[in-house]
Structures are given as structure tokens and as C-alpha cells.
Amino acid sequence: MKSWLHLAHAIGVGPVSISRLINQLGDPDTILKASNGDLSKAGLSALQIESLRGVDEAAIEQDLEWAEAPGRHIMTLDHPLYPALLRQIEDPPAVLYVLGDPEVLGLPGLAMVGSRKPTPQGRQTAEDFAHELAGYGLNINSGLASGIDAAAHRGSLKAGGITIAVAGTGLDRVYPPSNRKLAHEIAEQGALVSEFPIGTQPKAGHFPRRNRIISGLSLGTLVVEAAIRSGSLITARMASEHGREVFAIPGSIHNPMARGCHRLIQQGAKLVESAGDILQELAGTISLPGLEKTDDAVLVSEDVPVSEDHLQLLETMGYDPISIDQLVDRCALTAEEVSSMLLIMELEGKVAAMSGGLYQRLMPRD
């Protein structure tokens, strides 16, 4: 264990270099005993060799002390519970830090990713899809970020399913801090995972590395909402490079958060309208305990009855963000009547207020 941690702590010696060292020189103990010449022949630069020789032993001890508490685990690449799907990628992490149940990492899972600032409809769609898919027995894997990630985790938790959050920090901290409560719930009902040592602070460069683990753990990746320049598209690209399925939910052509999904669909991602579309695609590769269910639709009828006036207003709204003035122009109602109805429907969870004085219709929850 300590030799593995020594490799993982060597600055500038990443997963690809470690995999190459193991293939050429053998196990970590052998690597650490190798001469500088042998390390150089195995592809390490002088700076990498220097880093390998000068690892901070106190940082390794900090990791080992962290793992002494219940529910905390350190899994190395040769650990029997190291997830097989993740081991298949080109650059699997040499070490995984796990808070929760390490066995869930090997269960069939789907990555769900998207915008940190989704529309209300996008957030609800992510939660609904996660809830439905978790009910069929799929792990829901994501990155604990605000927005779509958090909604996906919550949907799985509400369904009583398993969810895995891959962090871009050490597991002694939560980023963003606003998701601290959510992180605790995930650890109790699934697992938090990171390749970063204890004490690691959030840095921009950590999150693309985290994304490859999200996709690497998963049979496929579903993108719910994403702009053209989005980390979610990086995750989708990595999933494709790993030989995994890529799914995308289409949206309004007027929604900038849908353009990333549309781009993915143009590039060959599978267009998804319901959880059934994903389950049908994965059915040939896995067996899930919930697949005897026949209802593959995520969205079901509302619990709260809708009055005729409200139903007319909802139909007039469509599913794109719209202003009160636009609604007044489209229907035979005053601005006061529209405002009053929107307030009632917002309280009932049928519409959501957005920035800029816009409103958006929400799909019904189950």
C-alpha cells in the first residue's frame, strides 16, 4: 500500500507514467528500488525521477491515518475490488480514495453530467431521469458539482438507489461547500471517490482528470444540458474514447444550454427522450433487477389537478422560457391574471421563475 501511495504522490508522475513503469519494471516496490538509469529507460525524465525520490512521507502518513476511520478505504490498481471498467481505460488512477462502500464501484452505472447553471427544466429532467434509472438498478455516477450533477445525485438518492460522486479534491473536503450535506448522503448510500490525496485543494486542472474517472466507471454517459464550451462535453468525449455509449437529451433551439447536447447528437450521440431509450441500448450488455418494469417513461401525470384556465396557460407557454408580456399577447388574459396564475402554478411546481422576468413550464414529477 505504502509503495503505491509513494507513486501516487510523486509530482509529475501521472497515471500513464505509472502504468508504463508497472508494465516495464513490475510492482511498485520494484519500481522504487530501480536505479535512475532503469527509470530513465522506462521513460521518466530527470525531473520525474527527482520527484519520485523526494516524495513527502508525511503526506503518505496523512493518507494512511485518514483510512483508519470506518467507511474510508484506499484502493490500489491491484486491489480485488478495483472497478474493472475503470481499469480498462488508458490512464486508470493508481490509487483511489473511497468514502462509503467500495463494492458499489463495480456495479453497472451510468454517468450523468451537465451544466452547473441549468434551466429549471434541465435540473428537473436530470433528477427525474436519475430517479427512474436508479429504480432499474443502475448506479448514477456524477461529479458532485452544482446544477445537473447535484440533481442527478439527488434523484438517485430519492429512489433509494446507489450514486457515486467523483471528487476533484481530497476526500477530507467537499467542493463546492454548498454540497456538503449531499456528499454525506452519498457516502451513506453509495460512495465518494477521488484519485487526489488527502488535503488536495480544488484546482481547475483537477476536474478534467476527475471527468475521465466518471466516464471510466460507467457503461455510458448521459449529457442533460450543456453549453458548447462545457466540461460535460469533455466527459462525453472521454466516454467515446473509452468505447462507452454517449447519450444526449435534446432541448429547445433557443436554449443555449441545449447546444452542447445538439452538437453531441450531430456527432453521433444517441438522442434520448426517456429512460427507456437508455435501458434498451444497455439491455444487451447488462442484466438489471428492475428491467421487469414495463413503464419506460420518465414523466408521468401530475398529482395536482389542473384547472382549465391554468391548462390553457400552460399550453400557451410551451416549453421555452417566456415573459408575461408574451403570454398576454398570446392569450385573452390580462397581465394581472397571468401573473396571478403563474404565482399559483409556481407554488404547485408547474412553472419556474427564471432570471430576466421569464417563466418556464416544468414537466410533471412522479
Task: Write a brief caption for the model.
By secondary structure, this protein is α/β, with parallel strands linked by helices. Helices cover 43% and strands 13% of the residues. It folds into 3 domains: 2-100, no CATH class; 102-282, Rossmann fold; 308-361, Winged helix-like DNA-binding domain superfamily/Winged helix DNA-binding domain (Arc Repressor Mutant, subunit A, Orthogonal Bundle).
Spatially, the strands of the biggest sheet line up as: 1-2-6-5-4-3-7-8-9
Computed structural class: alpha/beta
The largest β sheet comes out as:
9 strands, mixed
* Quantity of strands, as a count: 12
Q: Helicity level, as a percent range? A: 40-55%
Series of H and E elements: HHHHHHEHEEHEHEHEHEHEHEHHEHHEE
Supply the CATH class of the largest domain: Alpha Beta
Question: Which overall shape is indicated by the principal axes computed on the Cα atoms?
Answer: elongated
Count structural domains. 3
What is the third-level CATH name, the topology of the largest domain? Rossmann fold
Quote the distance from N terminus to C terminus. Answer: 46 Å
Mean pLDDT: 90
CATH architecture of the largest domain: 3-Layer(aba) Sandwich
Q: What proportion strand?
A: 5-15%
- The quaternary structure here is single chain
How many H/I helices?
Answer: 17
Using only CA atoms, what is the Rg? Answer: 23 Å
| Unreliable spans | 293-304
Topology at a glance:
Layout: H1 2-9, H2 15-25, H3 28-33, H4 36-41, H5 46-53, H6 57-66, E1 72-76, H7 84-87, E2 95-100, E3 109-113, H8 120-135, E4 139-142, H9 148-158, E5 163-166, H10 180-189, E6 191-194, H11 206-216, E7 220-223, H12 231-241, E8 245-248, H13 259-266, E9 270-271, H14 275-282, H15 308-317, E10 322-323, H16 324-330, H17 335-347, E11 351-353, E12 358-361
Parallel strand pairs: 3-4, 3-7, 4-5, 5-6, 7-8, 8-9
Antiparallel strand pairs: 1-2, 2-6, 10-12, 11-12
